[in-house]
Amino acid sequence: QAQLVESGGGLVQPGGSLRLSCAASGFTFRMYGMGWFRQAPGAERELVARINWNGGSTNYASSVKGRFTISRDNALNMMYLQMDSLKPEDTAVYFCNTNPPRDQWGQGTQVTVSS
Question: Which end of the chain is more exposed for a tag (fewer CB within 10 A), N or C?
Answer without folding.
Answer: N
